[in-house]
């Protein structure tokens, strides 16, 4: 986890990962009930909460952060990933989300993508949550652009 956190450029994302680690304690992952959004006010708007549905594996955006909506020009709130995003971007996000679900560990990416005819540079952390301590049922993403909007 130390190597993972060391790669993060954004103070907001470093703090978010540290908070996730604190509420996790000695467990593999924290539960959703452990998370209080008021404790991460500095990151509100950068966070999305994504339910993990199975059979088949799909990702449902319970909440898409306002700064993420502004960055991508797309609000995924109350929509499935594969219905909300263009196919190529949905596939990239689904692969990253699936990796976090399969390994039950946080993931970090720096990306530069063409989205809606503009280039977007950003960092993203994907943080898994589990109600039973084993099966990931919620992902929290934190996304911060490399350049101010």
Number of discrete helical segments:
5
Structural class determined from secondary elements: alpha+beta
Tell me which oligomeric state these chains represent.
single chain
Would you tell me the overall average pLDDT? Answer: 92
Tell me about the largest β-sheet.
Answer: 6 strands, antiparallel
The helix content is 25-40%
List low-pLDDT spans. none
Radius of gyration: 14 Å
Output the strand order for the largest sheet: 3-2-1-6-5-4
Strand content: 25-35%
Distance between the termini: 30 Å
How many β-strands, per DSSP? Answer: 6
Could you explain how this protein is built, in words?
This protein is an alpha+beta fold and 149 residues long. Helices cover 32% and strands 30% of the residues. It has five helices and six strands. The chain has helices spanning 2-6, 11-24, 66-72, 81-84, 87-103; strands at residues 47-53, 58-63, 79-80, 107-115, 118-129, 138-145. Strands 3-2-1-6-5-4 form a six-stranded antiparallel beta sheet, sandwiched between helices. The longest helix is centred in the middle third of the chain and has 17 residues, at 87-103.
Topology diagram in text:
Blueprint: H1 2-6, H2 11-24, E1 47-53, E2 58-63, H3 66-72, E3 79-80, H4 81-84, H5 87-103, E4 107-115, E5 118-129, E6 138-145
Antiparallel strand pairs: 1-2, 1-6, 2-3, 4-5, 5-6
Using brief descriptors, characterize the structure shown.
149 residues, alpha+beta, 6-stranded antiparallel beta sheet, 5 helices
